[in-house]
Specification:
This protein is an alpha/beta fold and about 210 residues long. About 45% of the residues lie in helices and about 10% in strands. It is globular, with a radius of gyration of 16 Å. It comes from Paenibacillus aquistagni.
């Protein structure tokens, strides 16, 4: 994925992406892109490349799993005819197993997750758009902690799919682990899921480095 003048880039995912972005389409100045990494990404791109314009669109929706993305992919991605799409999904697919254990049907198991991710990539590439993948993450240093262990497996799926298909992948778990080597998870996220501005800036910088 390489940006150019007039490039239309959609970023889609869950609450980590959403961050109170504008509805129905998250774009424009000020808070149209939300207050998270998508907004910071636009600022970094503008700072690094002030000579050209990138149309950035935030289509994140809080609480979404990859199953939800599949249900709205035509409307929220394909109909916008983007040049590129960044997909960051998986946290809720795993989290529903833990925060709603009485309804396990809400969780998306690994086989469905991988199958659906490949379908989303197929439909996106079919319209000529480029794809970048972001791994899900859990801000927890203990790799044996059950949710962290599950999240690592889903992250491995994303990396494997990206490698097999020749797509750029940003390992956000690795980004968060860099901080966790020196600090407690609560300094980045009280619930170990939703990062503060430091975490969002780290995500935005990692994406810029991969572009």
């Amino acid at each position: 994925m390489k940006l150019r003048q007039g490039y239309k880039l959609i970023v889609i995912g869950d609450s980590i992406t959403d961050c109170d972005r504008a509805r129905p389409v998250g774009e424009g100045l000020y808070h149209g892109l939300g207050h998270g990494y998508v907004n910071l990404l636009q600022s970094l791109i503008r700072c690094e490349h002030p000579s050209f314009i990138v149309q950035l669109i935030n289509m994140g929706i809080s609480g979404n799993t990859i199953r939800d993305l599949a249900g709205r992919w035509q409307r929220d991605v394909l109909e916008h005819e983007p040049d590129g799409v960044i997909i960051g999904i998986g946290i809720n697919d795993v989290w529903r197993k833990y925060d709603n254990p009485m309804n396990q049907a809400l969780a998306v198991l690994e086989e469905e997750y991988e199958r659906t991710l490949n379908k989303l990539i197929d439909s996106t590439q079919a319209i000529g758009a480029e794809v970048m993948l972001l791994t899900p993450f859990f801000i927890e240093p203990n790799k044996d902690e059950p949710m962290r262990a599950d999240m690592d497996r889903y992250g491995a799926i994303v990396k494997t799919v990206g490698e097999c298909r020749g797509l750029p992948v940003v390992d956000l778990q690795q980004v968060m682990d860099r901080f966790l080597a020196y600090t407690h998870p609560s300094t980045l996220a009280l619930d170990r899921v939703h990062p503060n501005q430091t975490g969002h800036m780290a995500i935005a910088k990692a994406i810029v480095e991969a572009l």
